[in-house]
Amino acid sequence: MAVKMDLVDARTTQRLLAWLIDFLPVLVLSVIFLPMIASKMVASLSAPQLAGEIAGTNILYSVLALAYTVFLWWWEATSGKTLGNVLLGLRTTTLKGERPGWGKTIIRRLLIAVAGIVPILGSVLMVISNHFDANGKKQGWHDKMAGTLVLDIKTGRDPLTTGGAAGPQSFAPPQQYAPGRRFVGEPDDAQGTSGGVIDSVPGAVRAAAPEAQESVRPRPSARPKPEAKIVEVPSTEAAADPDEDLGHTQIRPQSPDAVHLLFDDSQCLDLAGSILIGRNPSYSDGDVGVHLVALDDPDRTVSKTHLLIQPGVGSVWVTDRDSGNGSCIVDEDGNVRELVPGKPEQAMIGHTVYFGDRYFQVERP
Q1: Which of 36, 101, 94 has its CA nearest to residue 73?
Q2: What fold does the segment set 259-363 form as a domain?
Q3: 311 alpha carbon, distance to own chain's centre
Q4: Alpha helix (H) ranges present in the chain?
Q5: Which of 15-29, 39-53, 307-321, 322-336 has the lowest mean pLDDT?
Q6: Interval 304-327 mean pLDDT
């Protein structure tokens, strides 16, 4: 299904609801622990031995609340997600459409917390401050200080999976091959080197070297067409067809058009059969006649077994193998199709397939 390629800023109500959902686990912990602590403090007035128990309950409450807060900030810093963002279809990104990182996340979260000096109203006002932004209600005060955006990825595009704020076209591989591009498995061209032998004399005129002739790959000669022959059928009753017992003519399936995959590191892979690609791909049940192709991914955004790629007629069929960061297909008009794990999707010539932080384009040889 095609997805709109515009970035859509989250509405004020969405931001407020997401923040309230994020705060909900801390509120639940407070409802559980604070009455317990208060009752024990009252009881400790007549039983001083309860002081240690009160301290233990306080520590447990603080540790649980702090652990959730650290997890929430880490989740937002590394993926733009929070509990509220996921439920409402929002993402926190930088102005370039990238993951916010720890620095920006800490700034925006601390500003919301500091605004809480004014109970309830302060934090709420900070969260909905995008409503007062003259630039299309784009950023709240804390987002302006941190340099972040909050985007609605249900209505618009998710820049974290589609090439940042500029979109997939900003880093799509070029249509033409660049000089020096090499196919996977193709040996490097032999380079001429000087052997150190004196091949000229000062003052002598050196003959110009003959121009190298461009090597042309010979084309296979076409088979001559057989001449048509007219066969006269006798008017007598035709004999029984000797092939009748063999059944109908069996139609040979059409072989897929040859395609190759042009990867983001300028390597090309001729697709002669089904392949599994990933950081360290492995077979699963039903993978018969499938080749394994391991890709370099230092950032580990590509899963061990990320995609199954099968050749089609002028296309490839791509199946996400339940990867961690997902996959999508972007056509030449910029429309995005997110891959559902286990469901094959067709990528035509000129389409680009993104998986993790890697991508390849389907091209003709």
Answers
A1: 101
A2: Tumour Suppressor Smad4 (2.60.200)
A3: 21
A4: 12-44, 51-79, 83-88, 101-115, 121-127, 141-146
A5: 39-53
A6: 92
CA-to-CA separations, 282 to 211, 309, 310, 353, in angstroms, rounded: 50, 14, 16, 20
pLDDT at 23 over 60: yes
Place of tokens 């059969």: 273
Average the pLDDT over 153-169 and give the result.
Answer: 78
Sign of the alpha-carbon torsion through 116, 121, 127, 132: negative
Q: Mean pLDDT, to the nearest integer, of 351-360?
A: 94
Q: How crowded is residue 329: how many other Cβ atoms within 10 Å of its Cβ?
A: 20
Decide which of 362 and 7 is more confident.
Answer: 362
φ, ψ of residue 342 in degrees (nearest 5) = 85, -5
Between β-strands 148-152 and 336-338, what pairing exists: parallel, antiparallel or unpaired? unpaired
Burial zone of 27 (CB within 10 Å; 0-12 exposed, 13-18 middle, 19+ buried): exposed
**CA–CA dist 185, 187 (Å, integer):** 6
Quick one: CA torsion of 292, 298, 301, 302, rounded to 10 degrees? 0
pTM: 0.47
SS3 102: helix
User: Counting beta carbons within 10 angstroms of the beta carbon of residue 313, is it exposed (0 to 12), middle (13 to 18) or buried (19 or more)?
Assistant: exposed
Q: How far is CA 28 from the centre of its chain?
A: 35
The whole-number average pLDDT for the span 76-90 is: 95
Residue ranges of the domains in the chain? 12-160, 259-363
Beta bridge partners of 310: 317
